[in-house]
Amino acid sequence: VHSGDSIAVYPPVNVSPAQQEKIIAYTTELSRALNIKGSINIQYVYHEGVLYVLEVNPRSSRTVPFLSKVTGIPMINLATKISLGKTLPELGFRGDLLPPPSFVSIKAPVFSFSKLYRLETSLGPEMKSTGEVMGINRFFSRALYKALAASGFELPPQGNVLVTVADKDKKEALPLIRTLSRMGFKIHATRGTALFLEEAGLEVERINKIREGSPHVVDLIQSGSVDLVINTLTKGKMPNTDGFRIRRAAVEHNVPCFTSLDTATAAGEILEELRLGEDPGVLSLQEYLALSCC
Residue 114 has what pLDDT? Predict the structure, then answer.
């Protein structure tokens, strides 16, 4: 997924201290080897215990303004002065990683899929977002709720969920579907997904795939009976596939659609908190920064 379409979280919630130390070491080595003074943009992928470097660029990125806001550090101002010959100690700073704040900040992308006819809504290496928003809270799930709400992604407190996931994702999706079922959501699923969920003891309403005839998945969305869609990629992104048409129908009828299970799982946690009456709360950025300093 293009980094501009991804959700950025600071401080990281699932990157271990050992992984962070390795990232810092790689960044330091690359910066020194390339003689970078100022800004450097590095994209990493951590996969099966190995840290990979995708690309290194001597420039800033869209994440820097976000991080400058939530840390109170004018990063571009400092980078510019360092490029012109200043050092960190001369500017009142030292090296090393900034201590994590007492709150979580999340930058979420904003998309305009409904305005772009027949555009595939699942994400990939080509950037598709048209803007971005930010959510802050002391707790990750509440910060994510704020970010999603600001991006126009409304999470339903109850209703009908349409689930159709690839075989490779079924096991990972099960805890989320259990949570939604426990919260009172009615689960609708295509045959393969329905069989898996039924074997796991869940009550499921089966719905036809498009080729199986009406009423099918797209009919259900178009009828206004679906409040949330969970769909992971199966056979690609061609316009004639069920997945493509499900995702397009969701966008065109303003139904939240998750294609990433980790994001969907976090959304499930949000819905549980909201159901318990948890208030995300509102503080100014200055108040959050003051809390972090104390």
Answer: 64
